[in-house]
Amino acid sequence: MQQFFITGTDTDAGKTHVTSLLLKLLAQHKQRAIGFKPIASGCELAFDQLVNADALMLMESATVSAKYDIINPFAFEPAIAPHIAAEQVGVNLSVEKLRTAYKNVKQQGADYLLTEGAGGWALPINNTDYLYDWVKAEQLPVILVVGMKLGCINHALLTAAHMQSMGVNCIGWIANQVDATMGEYQANLDSLKSRLPFPLLAISPYTEQTPKLQIYKTLLTALAINA
After folding, report:
1. Is the pLDDT of residue 158 over 80?
2. Residues with active-site annotation
3. Residue 48: CB partners within 8 Å, gap ≥ 6?
4. Phi, psi at residue 85, to the nearest 5°?
5. Rg of the Cα trace of the chain?
6. What is the mean pLDDT of residues 67-91?
């Protein structure tokens, strides 16, 4: 099974959007793929359970089906930091609980498992641990989504530096243009390409049309898909 963790430079960098596009890319190549959103806040009650729009999008884009609570085992209603939301309802998030939930989704029979993080890279899950502790424990290859907007260079470089300090295997980054009016977009993109220590895998342009990834061969190689 090919497994990847998709993180972002910050909240609203476009992790769900990019993960959904990657799942659809895998579907086009006839691959059995599933998405996993272990932690989500900002959920709504539907069918007697809390559901998250991002998790539902991953389910719609996948080619392997599973029950909602397999795809999103930790769902919280308030749109606040997940560790605070969990504490408010008496849930103790931990690396071990995430590892157990991950075992459940790995049993669904997919060839590709794409896990979408929550917020940015440094997401607390309790008073001492972070989501990246779980990522490192699972030894997951990471794809970094850079939300292309003012401040993205600082966010991306700080995130990359932390990943390197932890010895995390970041296989590359995807530029997601979230701000249609961003000044000097190409100059910012070129600056990131020259400064980030990971290869650019794809570009997701801002568009009102059906979104498509501008894919580089490095992405297909990373996903082990024949070009």
Report:
1. yes
2. 37
3. none
4. -60, -40
5. 17
6. 95
Residue 101 has pLDDT above 80, yes or no: yes
Q: Are 56 and 90 in contact (CB under 8 A)?
A: no
Round to whole Å and give the CA distance between 82 and 70. 18
Separation of alpha carbons 11 and 84, rounded Å: 16
User: Cβ atoms within 10 A of the Cβ of 166, count?
Assistant: 15
User: 219, exposed or middle or buried, with CB in 10 Å at 0-12, 13-18, 19+?
Assistant: buried
Distance CA 151, CA 11 (A): 13
The Cα–Cα gap between 138 and 113 comes to 13
Q: Round to whole Å and give the CA distance between 101 and 46.
A: 22
Q: Are strands 200-204 and 214-215 parallel, antiparallel or unpaired?
A: antiparallel
Supply the pTM of this predicted model. Answer: 0.95
Structure tokens belonging to residue 115: 């896990």
What's the pLDDT tens digit per position in 191-226?
Answer: 999 999 999 999 999 877 667 899 999 999 999 987
